[in-house]
Amino acid sequence: MRTYRLTYSDIRGRAELARLVFVAAGESFEDRRVSREEWAELKKETPFGQIPVLEVDGKPLAQSYAIARFLGREFGLAGSSNWESAQIDQVMDLVEDLRRELLKVIFEKEPDKKKDLEQKLQDEVFPKFIVFFQKLLENTGGQYFVGSSLSLADLAVLDLFDTPLQMYPSLLDKSPALQAHRKLLESSPKLDEYLKSRKKTDI
């Protein structure tokens, strides 16, 4: 039986998708959350000097999407065909495109520039991407993003909108399809317990 240890900071961040995969699949893992002081000591031992890192039977794997995709394949959440796997990758790449725009706002230090970026995010970026995600969802019947069952794509979108919805609670009010998708995942027995009990963080 394989053992898994996921190392990251005590926030959702770049490790949360992997955590969601473990939870949704009902698989056990060690959720190792390190402090800044611990990270300073650990950094030199990681493949690229960054986290998250997943250890599988003691062997390290870095890069958040490489980790998530590996776990998706491990636990049957990576599609039932090569075409479905490509569709999942398409959704995940779209997730990353929007995440980059969001991070520009979160990490901008100059107040005026931050305000301008935030306004653009609300007026242009979010509306554009919400339409993209909604169309993808509607094209597969409106329940899951790829195929007829839960996949890595669904978990990636669930994770993506956590921070924006903390910032703008009404963000998905005009997208009933995305709201329904989110409620579907949040109400699944395995995810429900985890989502309600996890530590609340800004990112």
Which descriptor suits the 3D outline?
A: globular
User: How are the strands of the largest sheet arranged?
Assistant: 2-1-3-4
Helix count equals 9
Q: Which structural category do the helix and sheet elements fall into?
A: alpha+beta
Beta-strand share of residues: 5-15%
Mean pLDDT: 96
Oligomer state of the chains in this structure = single chain
Largest sheet: 4 strands, mixed
Count of domains? 2
CATH architecture of the largest domain: Up-down Bundle
Order of helices and strands: EHEHEEHHHHHHH
Radius of gyration, in Å, reads 17 Å
Q: Classify the fold: give the CATH topology of the largest domain.
A: Glutathione S-transferase Yfyf (Class Pi), Chain A, domain 2
DSSP, total strands: 4
Contiguous low-pLDDT stretches (5 residues minimum) are none
End-to-end CA span: 33 Å
Classified by CATH, the class of the largest domain is Mainly Alpha
* Approximate helicity band: 55-70%
How would you sum up this structure in a few lines?
The chain has nine helices and four strands, in the order βαβαββααααααα.
